[in-house]
Predict the 3D structure of the following.
Amino acid sequence: MFTGIVTAVGRITEVTPLAQGKDAGVRLRIQAPGFLRPESKLGDSIAIQGACMTIVAIEDDGFKVDVSRESLNRTVGLHAPGDVNLEHAMRLGDTLDGHMVSGHVDGTATVTAFEQAGESWKLQIQIPSELGRYMAYKGSVTVNGVSLTVNSVQDKPEGCEIGINLIPHTVQVTTLKGLQPGARVNIEVDMIARYCERLLGARSVTA
């Protein structure tokens, strides 16, 4: 379990296929000096661009994770060298500064606008139709592992476009600063919204 509060930006420096063939996963080497805790160990969970991964090797300046082909097919930003948002799994007693995030990416979406608005930044994202129903005004969404608040929702025939205001601090300490229109991002919908849909659906069937 995570909170969507990014604690470091690391960098994928190596991408090594785990086997031959198009269905093979990859091993990523993440360079992140000072990110790992003294008690970090093999098997720990780390959110990388919002996707929960397991540490399989620890190095002086970072760590390695294995990413399955299924995860690669459902995410962006884990297939090639580049900067990535990092977050440790939440510990019992930690403050929940963002919202409850599972690290299970629901799908990808497309940035339609990213521009400065006063001292802040305005981010607009086109969400696929199957995920649009989970978007709500002032609700929560995770974008590339960052917990954000939805400030506008506009349903369209091709999906749902949401608007988000980013404060300068969020832009500075995450990979979101590199976004441009047309970029693809990882999306995880609000866990509570997903359970509400399931409960209401089950109630309708029972009735």
